[in-house]
């Protein structure tokens, strides 16, 4: 990068921070800023100056960690101090919910904030900006309604836009009057939203996804300044909006669901239970061979509410309910057995994406080792009672 260009960038960033009181930046195609000659270089002059600047280094720095050049996909490779749009999270969660095999191990990594990408660089889960959709590509509604892009309105013979969307139309391409497919699409939207806001890391939600925005299968609407890209407030899906609001409130109310430090897999307190545990539908902890079963599409995840590594503003321990979260991407319902009593004597179901219900007072009370039916392609969340 030429010195004058670099100086201009730095002066502009300082101006926006000091004069306009902007608290952070998202850098579009950020790998471009680190290119020296042809290759992307983590030790480039741009990163060096950013880290040395007493003003800019204190701002929130978020990278879109790829560009269109050779070797431009740099997810997980930005320096400490940077957060990243986690494109791997997007791809894995899309594949998981459309029923791809061999997903549990990868799903677990992304769900925990991608420690395989960020932990060794001394970054925290907050380095992972998790997202299902972005301003480029399908909206959430279109992600569950189209298998293929439909960009004819862009007048480029449908050649523009991404071809590999990892989407699933639930059985019919585009809009339909089939009530069964409509209900499945609504459930899939709730599954994606629940996964996003229950994952460790920082959730990113695109404006309009919370109310069912569609672009009629167009995944490249940058050139459309009309009702194809505008927000249709008059036809907003109020039930989906309510679900999203309650989901956000659930995350905000429970620090166990938004930890600032990594799970460590060690015993917590005197009960001998680890801060996190993984379970099969029969109520037993996951073993190595369970992760390798290509047909497995369901998993139970236990969060110990006393295993939060962070401290409160006065240095106090942060304590919360225990949580047991069940993800079932299988095409049939599953009978799940809750963990044994040492993990929790009783549980309240507080979220069910099959019905779209979220209730802090509970949707049902269950005891240790009790069985419950988890609907096909759904998420169930229980918290200790």
Mean of residue pLDDT? Answer: 94
The overall number of domains is 2
Distance between the termini: 57 Å
- Helix % is 10-25%
Q: Globular, elongated, flat, extended or rod-shaped: what is the shape?
A: globular
- Overall SS class: alpha+beta
Q: How many β strands by DSSP?
A: 18
Number of helices: 9
> Which class of the largest domain in CATH terms?
Alpha Beta
Q: What is the CATH homologous superfamily assignment of the largest domain?
A: Glycosidases
Order of helices and strands: HEEEHEEHHHEHHEHEEEHEEEEEEEE
What fold name goes in the CATH topology slot of the largest domain? TIM Barrel
Report on the biggest sheet: 7 strands, antiparallel
Q: Based on the structure given, which CATH architecture of the largest domain is correct?
A: Alpha-Beta Barrel
Give the strand content. 15-25%
Short description:
With 385 residues, the chain is α+β, with helices and mostly antiparallel strands. It is 24% helix and 18% strand.
